[in-house]
Amino acid sequence: TYTMRTTTTHEHDKLHGGLLVEGFDEESCHSRYQSAMYRRNPGRQPSKYLISKLRRHEALQRRCGPGTVAYSDALEQLKSGKNATSTSSPECKYLVSLSYRGLGNRILAAASAFLYALLTDRVLLVDPSNEMDVLFCEPFPNTTWLLPPGFPLNIRSLYAPAPERYGKMRENGALRTDIAAATNGVDLPAAFAYIHLDFDHSEQDQLFFCNDDQRLLLSNFQWLVMRTDSYIVPGLFLVDTFQEELDMMFPERDTVFHHLGRYLFHPTNYVWGLVTRYYRAHMAWAQRRVGIQVRVFSWEPNSPELLERITRCTQEEGMLPRVVGNEEESPAVTTAATTTTTGRGGGVKSSAVLVTSLKAWYSEQMKVMYWENATEGGEVVMVSQPSHEEEQQSGIKSHEVKAWAEIYLLSLTDMLVTTGKSTFGYVAQGLAGVRPWVLLNNNQAASRPCSRDMSVEPCFHIAPVYDCKRRGDAGKVVPHVRRCEDVPTGLKLV
Ligand code: GDP
């Protein structure tokens, strides 16, 4: 296998400033300790507090995770159908995170569940379905984050009608925040609570983001099962009881996904092979790497307007050179050829453009444009696209591995252009630590083809509408949680 200058890589780079721990078997997951070598932008530094919190959480996952006595005891409680917390106060509490919809959605949901688990000292167990078990390496040392087979609940069937749904138990009065059931010996209605934060959640489901409800969940439920396909993190920043802890963990608030994503999501060896082979062939040699995510749907016709927006955005914002016509040969052509082979030609830049899309048309058009036309300054532009799957699928290994490799490759670029609203693009920008230029849609694009995102953080699409206390706008409660530009009802950290 190919190794990249391992000896010159400093330990702190390899561990992302202490985010990761030594001691994992390197062979079982090459990406974990190699990824830093592929990143030109080393990323932001995690706080000491976050690092210590992660180490304590890893210990919790080992102490309480699958295979331990505590885990078997907790499963017995769940099987009994009774709630344990009214009689005892268990040392280990659990959060099961369901995995569904597209890969970007699943990554954002797992990262959100992890932050909630960190804040509430719950063991995180991730539903292994939809290839979650084959795409990612184990993030926690000497234990597993995957929910083992034989779990007593049929979790995948949990949806809005479930009687254990938290919002429903609040709505019908089975749970009340003014009576703490556990301390009053009141029988709890369910052995676990099912948190439903899908697009059709109710106002009562949104109470999850309120202080009193968090207290109720903490003292009354050993088991929680969460269904969301969203990045609920900005909602957690609205909960008073979490604020101090979050401030200490993330003094730079716009780095939450950046750090948690780099901590949790390491491509497995098969995916890493796809990433590194592509990177070396199409990106490593370039002086500048530009990632362009063109999120289109199979039923949409190819759009010359969108192509025009991409071209204008990359050229007007200085990411790629302008084309200057095809009449004569650019005087810099010979120098450019030297540049690409030696990497140090007389000031002429080389750019690798990585396009990801379900369709091939956009990158083909760009390729033709940069072949048929000379560029300003003779800059060499090489456009490539790893795959064009045409149809969106999920749960199919050969499709999912490409999607993950492409998200990861986008995150290795120096500049990013993304399609608004897309969780696929959010994950790439977060892992990269790069604020993307977001392509504006037809209605928004009066004159500008794209606008720079206000932070690298993903947008929480189905965010709570109200502030819990005052029924004011949830986008105005704290200054660092704002409405998103691409999804005006969403919330994001800045
Ligand atoms: P979102 O729908 O844009 O928020 O992103 P998701 O990742 O959640 O879902 C879209 C899914 O469609 C991806 O997970 C892939 O399965 C597929 N897909 C969309 N765009 C691409 C692409 O550029 N490349 C590949 N390989 N798959 C894509």
TrEMBL record:
Look up the EC number in the record and give it.
2.4.1.-
**One GO molecular-function annotation for this sequence?**
galactoside 2-alpha-L-fucosyltransferase activity
The listed locations are:
Golgi apparatus, Golgi stack membrane
Q: Which domain of life is it from?
A: Eukaryota
Q: Which UniProt keywords apply?
A: Cell wall biogenesis/degradation, Glycoprotein, Glycosyltransferase, Golgi apparatus, Membrane, Transferase, Transmembrane, Transmembrane helix
Q: What's one Pfam family the UniProt record gives for this protein?
A: XG_FTase
**What processes does the entry annotate via GO biological process terms?**
cell wall biogenesis; cell wall organization; xyloglucan biosynthetic process
What protein family does this chain belong to? Belongs to the glycosyltransferase 37 family.
Q: What exactly does this protein do?
A: May be involved in cell wall biosynthesis.
Q: What is this protein called?
A: Fucosyltransferase
Lineage per the UniProt record: Eukaryota, Viridiplantae, Streptophyta, Embryophyta, Tracheophyta
